[in-house]
Amino acid sequence: MNPECTIVVRSPADLIAVTPYLLGFHPADSLVVIGTQGRAVTFVGRHDLPPPGVDDSDAIATMVARQAAQSVSLLGFGPADPVNRLVSSLATALTRVGVQLRDQLRITAGRWWTLDCADPACCPPEGRPVPSPHSPIAATAVFQGQVALPNRQQLVSQVGPVEGDERRRMAAATAALNFRFGDGLPRTMMGRAGRNAVISAEKRHASGRSLTYDETALLGALLVGRTAFDFALNRIGDEPWQLRLWTETTRRVEVPYVPGPAALLGYAAWRVGLGPLARVALDRALNHDPYHHFAMILDRLLAAGISHEAVQDFEPPAGSMRRKAA
Question: What InterPro entries does the database record attribute to this sequence (predicted)?
Fold first, then answer.
């Protein structure tokens, strides 16, 4: 969420209503952990419900403990048995590592239950209806510009390849670039031209415009080189147009050129606290190049639940581009 947004949560029902806006999509078959410091949300994590016989509680608890939240709430979305098992096991693991628990909730088939309450007067055994999508909390989130997509797959689609006429035009632009430079761009171009292409792309998107297909093809090809990639990485800030720039580039470029802009999109999203978007962008980068060094590093930071604020003076490591395993 945008850290400048203010949404007041007064009850477990309000917490359930705001969770999709914290994630950016409506979770399903998921455990969501929300950490708070005072009245502010400082950490939001989501984990798939594990298959039968698998218990990830200790690993999740270790990750959550690193966030140093004052207290955490656990929300399990999905069938009763797996959610109850995971929430109970994780609550025990969190208590063991000294994390204070606030809420333990299960959300199943449009109803919700408080799992650490056995008093039928306040926690009826039949549960309570999940808040309407038009609840005051949801309305406030939408008014403040927040979005909750119907499911995670739609978030994945937001970084997926363009199709139809856009795909054909992009393929033609890439083919023309390859024909022009044969086996690859000259080494003498990779430095200066890479920096110029990044600066030009930034200016274009900062003014609300897009690159041409030819410009996008060239930018994608230049980002294969370490000089252009590291230059772009060091210039990423918190401006909203950075997300638009790297999302558009990731979606447009042909498959061989996806890892660079996708890794940059992941970093831009991570910087502004959009963990789910960072996750799907990095998944796309690593799907096309499992050895993209910077994407691998950022992937580990996300897996450990480490926020951008917790990393001081983050710099691209030497050789931040692709490095094949021996």
Answer: DUF4192
